[in-house]
């Protein structure tokens, strides 16, 4: 080996050792919260505060926040590994979303916020002292964000916001909301211009927050938010007026990579349960896992999870190296969601009737992982992106 090749191999080994250490530390912390904890959070729809506080105390919430603002200043690869371990611990989307919401929604502030905004809010977010919500989706616009109707108008030195958001995670407890609103009318030539991001106080006198009763992830609330005359100070505008959508798009690739890894982790948790059950459950005088009808689909899930992880880590490495990664990041989200869902669904099948019982964690993981195929972007929208950007087909969105 040449000296350059040796140095390269050594650097790769050191990097691997660093990630393994991170993986072990994150998993040890996540493992302190067992299936009974998550079952209770799900049953009673209680926010997993103890879990969040444990990750805050270890500094993980500020993973992507630069050290100058009280964070760890790490990269997307580390975030992907962290969220994978949370998923793989059995925390499901209840745990993954609770941590995810400290790591990704603040990204527009970090990249485009004023210095004063960053100094004021990022350290509090990194310490877990500030909970934020993310208000983009609206009932009548759906995936076509250019159609949002929430509006902000300038009145003196303040902005006044009126409108409605839906599916707003965390709005039951959040102190702040990153809110996308139209600040100039939709222009058919440039439909995504003219929207602005506000880091607004979630003032309950002006925002009526109503929880949505939903299929899974009851621990982390989702809400309708009716906004009537919410006042936002000029200093709470993120970046430039009219460029809010552009700022959101900026942070999509890293988020998609990490969402893919959440799916992989949750799929692995379910697959682990299924494999153990298939060894122990005796029917017709043999372990059910001896039947290839049971074993092969589980083996296939294993393969799919490995492949999804590989593309996610590739995308993360590209992003961290400052290289384009749009196709890989979207592939990571799509394949991680599919592989996670397939593994949870196959685990349900492996458990037979007992998969339907809440005594086992499988049904919760199955309900929760389904979300990744729908949100924050649907699988169809990912395929639209790949068709247009990678295959040159006409844009359909
Ligand atoms: C639990 C949960 C939490 C969420 N948290 C948040 C949050 O915190 N903040 C926030 O802003 N949003 C949040 N969302 C909203 C989420 O991002 C949206 O639900 C998602 O983007 C899909 O939008 P929609 O539900 O309006 O679906 P629609 O846009 O109405 O789409 C419906 C179906 O049609 C398909 N479709 C639409 N257009 C096309 C097309 N051109 N080509 C192919 N297929 C198409 C979609 O893929 C989908 O399958 C959350 C959603 C859920 C379920």
Q: What does this 3D model show about the protein?
A:
The chain has 397 residues and is an alpha+beta fold. The chain folds into three domains: 9-126, Orthogonal Bundle (Butyryl-Coa Dehydrogenase, subunit A, domain 1); 132-241, Butyryl-CoA Dehydrogenase, subunit A, domain 2 (Beta Barrel), CATH 2.40.110; 248-389, Butyryl-CoA Dehydrogenase, subunit A, domain 3, CATH 1.20.140. The protein is built from twelve helices and ten strands. Strands 1-4-5-8 form a four-stranded mixed sheet. A four-stranded antiparallel sheet has the order 2-3-7-6, with no helix packed on it. Helix 1 runs parallel beside helix 4 and helix 10 (326-350) runs antiparallel to helix 11. The structure holds flavin-adenine dinucleotide.
């Amino acid at each position: 080996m040449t000296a350059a090749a040796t140095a390269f191999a050594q650097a790769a080994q050191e990097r691997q050792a660093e990630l393994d250490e991170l993986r072990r530390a994150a998993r040890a912390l996540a493992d302190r919260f067992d299936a009974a904890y998550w079952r209770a959070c799900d049953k009673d729809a209680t926010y997993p505060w103890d879990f969040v506080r444990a990750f805050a105390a270890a500094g993980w919430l500020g993973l992507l926040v630069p050290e100058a603002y009280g964070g760890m200043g790490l990269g997307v690869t580390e975030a992907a590994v962290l969220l994978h371990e949370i998923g793989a611990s059995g925390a499901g989307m209840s745990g993954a979303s609770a941590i995810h919401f400290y790591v990704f929604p603040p990204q527009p502030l970090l990249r485009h916020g004023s210095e004063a905004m960053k100094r004021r809010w990022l350290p509090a977010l990194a310490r877990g002292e500030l909970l934020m919500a993310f208000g983009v989706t609206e009932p009548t616009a759906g995936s076509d964000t250019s159609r949002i109707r929430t509006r902000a108008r300038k009145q003196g030195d303040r902005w006044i916001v009126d409108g409605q958001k839906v599916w707003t995670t965390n709005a039951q407890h959040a102190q702040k909301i990153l809110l996308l609103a139209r600040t100039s009318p939709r222009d058919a030539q440039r439909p995504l211009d003219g929207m602005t991001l506000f880091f607004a106080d979630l003032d309950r006198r002006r925002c009526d927050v109503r929880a949505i009763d939903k299929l899974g992830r009851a621990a982390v609330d989702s809400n309708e938010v009716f906004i009537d005359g919410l006042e936002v100070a000029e200093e709470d505008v993120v970046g430039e007026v009219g460029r809010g959508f552009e700022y959101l798009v900026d942070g999509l690739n890293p988020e998609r990579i990490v969402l893919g890894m959440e799916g992989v982790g949750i799929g692995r948790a379910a697959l682990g349960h299924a494999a153990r059950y298939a060894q122990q459950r005796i029917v017709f005088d043999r372990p059910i896992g001896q039947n290839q009808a049971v074993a092969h689909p589980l083996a296939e899930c294993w393969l799919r999870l490995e492949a999804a992880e590989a593309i996610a880590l590739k995308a993360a490495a590209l992003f961290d190296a400052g290289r384009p990664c749009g196709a890989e990041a979207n592939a990571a989200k799509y394949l991680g969601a599919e592989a996670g869902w397939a593994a949870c669904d196959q685990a349900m099948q492996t458990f037979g009737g007992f998969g339907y019982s809440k005594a086992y964690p499988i049904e919760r993981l199955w309900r929760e992982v389904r979300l990744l195929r729908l949100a924050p972007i649907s699988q169809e929208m990912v395929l639209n992106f790949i068709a247009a950007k990678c295959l040159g087909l006409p844009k359909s969105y």
